[in-house]
Amino acid sequence: MVGDRDDWRVRTEARPPCCRQDALAKRILVIDDDPLICKIIDVCLTKRGHDVRVFYSGVEAVKYLMEETPDSVVLDIRLPDCEGWFLAELLGKLSAAERVPIIVTSVLDPDRRKINKFRPYAYLQKPFDMRQLMGVVEGSLGEEASPDGLPTAA
User: Fold this and answer.
1) Number of structural domains, the chain?
2) pTM of whole model > 0.90?
3) CB of 44 within 8 A of CB of 130?
4) Do the domain assignments include residue 1?
5) Contact call for residues 123 and 104 (beta carbons, < 8 A)
6) How far is CA 74 from the centre of its chain?
7) CATH number, position 77
8) What range does the domain containing 10 cover?
9) Which long-range contacts (CB under 8 A, 24 or more apart) does 50-55 make?
10) pLDDT tens digits for 66-110?
């Protein structure tokens, strides 16, 4: 077990100086009910200079989305309190002026009907390679990624 879910979720304010986010950091929203997956994604994206916000349920994410608009979203489809596709639809309505890229992750086989309806930036089936996810996230932000999924130097 990774520990209490809330002990590291909001740790962006308490990061050491080497990891603090600057004004240009991209805000990535991670919505997944698996604490281990969330922790790994959080660490990987934070090391790349992004401001990561993690939520374990749809209700938590909706509260956040009513106040803030992320630059990209990593979204699990199977959440304990709602279907991820509902959040994809909500995000599309909340950010109608600017489309937020959504990277869908799921253990389920892709549902072509829903993919065509919600048009996510990418669909990664679990288990996925973390380098692949990092490359897709960087691509969704308009940043170049190398073939191994790591960002290239600017």
Assistant:
1) 1
2) no
3) yes
4) no
5) yes
6) 3
7) 3.40.50.2300
8) 6-140
9) 50/21, 50/25, 50/26, 50/137, 51/12, 51/21, 51/25, 51/26, 51/27, 52/12, 52/27, 52/28, 53/12, 53/27, 53/28, 53/29, 54/9, 54/30, 55/9, 55/29, 55/30, 55/31
10) 898 899 999 999 999 999 999 999 888 876 557 899 999 999 999
